[in-house]
Amino acid sequence: MGDVVTCSVLLAILAVAGMAPTAPPAVSPSQAAEKPLPVIGRVRVTTPLCKTLLGDASLAVQIEAENDRRLDTAVATLKAEDVDSSAIAKQHGIRELTRQFVTLREAAVSGSNAMRNFRGLIKDGQTADQRAKLGAFADALDGALRRQRLLADRLGGLVAYLDTHEPMTKEEHDKATFDVIASENDSRLSARSAFDPRDFGPTAAVPDQLSTVAKASGADIANRALPLERDEDDASAKIEPAFSGC
Predict the structure, then answer these.
(1) For the segment 1-53, what is each residue's pLDDT rounded down to a tens digit?
(2) pTM
(3) What distance lies between CA 239 and its chain's CA centroid?
(4) Beta-carbon contacts of residue 104 (< 8 Å; ≥ 6 apart)
(5) CA-to-CA distance for 122 and 130, rounded, in angstroms?
């Protein structure tokens, strides 16, 4: 009887040739409750080639699943992290976000490398139809990993922004906003002979607090991560056909 592997969108259960899955990352108390683990396919393999292919695919699925959790954690961190109260708070936030960025991106690259190995073996498939189906599954799963890598890069971009801008408490931000408005209005009034209420327009441009930028970035990453579910559904629909010839 061939080996049976159950691949989940959120967790890859590795049961190929005695392989055991690595433990999933610990979930912080602040992390949102996880969704149930939907099964994306039960795959039976009987040939050495298919066992090797399934090993690479299972590794990539597991990485993709863990990166989903890492993205949730990153978004939660961005919403909660205080990087404005002091320079120490800023450095603490940057250190934590840097760690999350590096872990997320390195994992996505590792998953893509596993799929590169997978693609390299596809040419040894028994039939053109089998090779095409394996390639379609690889495209779908690699698409999710590529999207995660791009999201990691956005997180890295935020870290670079935070590192090059000064923290600002709410009181400091309010004062800076008031000073700019006052300065602009004084300049406008000095050039006019009469008071014009239209001189007191919208708030002048003052850099947002770093925490405000972080929260906005978290919302942006969460929004950009929404298509991941479509990527996972696509992989789910293609995994069983891909291994049907095994």
Answers:
(1) 343 333 443 333 333 333 334 444 444 434 444 544 444 445 566 688 888 88
(2) 0.73
(3) 23
(4) 67, 70, 71, 74, 148, 151, 152, 155
(5) 9
